[in-house]
Design a protein that fits this description.
The complex is a heterodimer of chains A (321) and B (187). By secondary structure, chain A is an alpha+beta fold. In chain A, 35% of the residues lie in helices and 22% in strands. Chain A has a single domain, classed as BirA Bifunctional Protein, domain 2 (2-Layer Sandwich), CATH 3.30.930. Chain B is built from 1 helix and 16 strands. Classes of the chains: A alpha+beta (321), B mainly beta (187).
């Protein structure tokens, strides 16, 4: 048996260099590194993300974080300056070529920026890191495109108005055979993941901005059009690297979204974890105007090294952890 | 009725889809960070051999195919059916030409094959990875050509034709890899 052996020797030094590079990037920009709990009493209700649970022999139990978002927002609500964290996070049921159930997430928050401006800082961060080592790959161009324009250009449909049945027909024309009932957003997720993003050029960074409000998560509605949310994603080639928001600060809207998440979990037969009571209280006290983003560090490393599978950059992926 | 959820999907798992037993060849998990998860699955139809790709919404359950691989000894061919026997139970199965497929050319009496049964009926036959067979016909080797590593066709007792080195002669027994159809060695 060679299962005890680490499997990502070729990426080990690169990872150390990248982590140092990320810390240098934020030090130079006066963004404070923080640490928050990995284990907490509440979990996100987002139906698309499942938390691991942890139990202690003394009867105490909690959830492993899926991202450090909630406690970092509590810091911001309590007056913290711009902050970042390099966190280990855990997601249930996620394992594949680009997924390991435990991974490293870089999350940061900037006061006074909106999602478009924070997206440019993400691009700057990626370019700065790619320049650290001459052997690393570097993106050669950048495209910023709205979620709506992306679907219009690639598939000829307007994602805000198109019906699920039409998306189903689009998928069929693309040769996709689907098993299972999908709602509108699931069809959109399917098409962006399996048709649109795979066509992005390998050496291009793509910033997608202004998502449908139904996929807002914790992004605020766009000022010009409330059917849209102030959310962005950054892709390197076809690889989804980062997801960010101009953060939702409105307590009433936050509660509405959480109720929507709860209803969807019930409808899908998913478990309802204990909600995080502190985030709600922090929002009630007041979250300052800010933008925040989470970037997958393992995936960035994959792109820098030009490798296809996440276990090539993780010495001990979960099945051998 | 046994079912498998997408989170149990892995290569080799057998599912009943569109009325046919299908084996997972490849399973890939795909998910946007904040969106719906999917399993992209490459499946081989065990009845037709056709490979196709299907995308499952993660969390879906699929009926398991009652498919079982059983080691059986090849007995004989009666002109229409190829007869196999489970050594422990002496239970016999008659396999038709469609289910036999390409395995037919590697069958030698007494050899142990893997017969796949679907709902108790033979679905396919996989011959042993290596078989040893007598050459029933091949041309004599040409002197001096051995150094070049040249080959010539040889017909085996089962009727299969394989390429053998020039020094191998008619009447000799050779070992063949049935997966590639390639000559391995003289026996």
């Amino acid at each position: 048996m060679t299962d005890w052996r680490p499997g990502a020797a070729a990426a080990r030094e690169a990872r150390a260099r990248l982590l140092a590079g990320l810390r240098g990037f934020f030090a130079a920009r006066n963004v404070l590194e923080v640490e928050t709990p990995i284990l907490s009493h509440g979990a996100p209700l987002d139906p698309m993300v499942e938390s691991w649970t942890a139990a202690s022999p003394d009867g105490a139990s909690g959830y492993l974080q899926t991202s450090p978002e909630y406690p970092m927002k509590r810091l911001l609500a309590a007056g913290a300056p711009d902050i970042y964290q390099i966190a280990r996070v855990f997601r249930g049921g996620e394992a594949g070529p680009r997924h390991n159930p435990e991974f490293t997430l870089l999350e940061w928050y900037r006061h006074g920026l909106d999602h478009r401006r924070l997206a440019r800082e993400v691009v700057a961060l990626i370019m700065t890191q790619a320049a650290l080592d001459a052997a690393w790959r570097q993106p050669n161009h950048l495209r910023e495109i709205s979620y709506r324009a992306l679907f219009r250009n690639h598939l000829g449909v307007d994602p805000l108005t198109v019906e699920a049945a039409e998306l189903q027909a689009v998928a069929a024309r693309q040769g996709l055979e689907i098993q299972g009932e999908l709602d509108r957003d699931a069809w959109l997720d399917l098409l962006i993941s399996l048709v649109i993003a795979p066509a992005f050029p390998d050496d291009r960074l793509t910033v997608v901005f202004d998502y449908p409000e139904t996929q807002a998560v914790l992004a605020r509605p766009c000022d010009q059009d409330t059917r849209l949310a102030a959310r962005f994603e950054v892709y390197w080639g076809a690889v989804e690297l980062a997801n960010g928001y101009h953060e939702l600060c409105d307590l009433a809207q936050f509660r509405e979204r959480r109720e929507r998440d709860q209803a969807m979990r019930r409808q899908r037969g998913q478990e309802l974890p204990e909600p995080d009571i502190h985030l709600e209280a922090a929002l009630e006290s007041g979250l300052p105007d800010c933008a925040g983003v989470a970037l997958g560090v393992d995936r960035l490393l994959m792109c820098l090294l030009g490798v296809e599978r996440i276990e090539q950059v993780i010495d001990f992926p979960f099945e051998r952890a | 009725m046994a079912t498998y959820s997408t989170n149990e999907f892995k290569a080799g798992l057998k599912l009943l889809l569109d009325g046919d037993p299908q084996a997972i060849v490849e399973n890939e998990f795909v998910k946007p960070g904040k969106g719906q998860a999917f399993n992209r699955v490459k499946l081989r139809n065990l009845r037709t051999g056709r490979v196709l790709e299907k995308t499952f919404k993660s969390g879906e359950s699929v009926e398991a195919a009652d498919v079982m691989d059983t080691e059986m000894q090849y007995l004989y061919n009666d002109g229409e059916f190829w007869h196999f026997m489970v050594p422990d139970t002496f239970e016999q199965y008659a396999v038709g030409e469609a289910a036999l497929g390409d395995a037919g050319q590697w069958l030698k009496e007494q050899d142990v094959c893997t017969v796949t049964l679907w709902n108790g009926e033979p679905l396919s036959v996989v011959p042993p990875a290596f078989v040893e067979m007598k050459i029933t016909q091949c041309d004599p080797g040409v002197r001096g050509d051995t150094a070049q590593g040249g080959t010539k066709p040889a017909t085996l007792e089962s009727g299969a034709v394989v390429k053998v080195p020039l020094f191998v002669e008619e009447g000799e027994t050779v070992k063949v890899d049935t997966r590639s159809g390639e000559y391995v060695s003289r026996v």
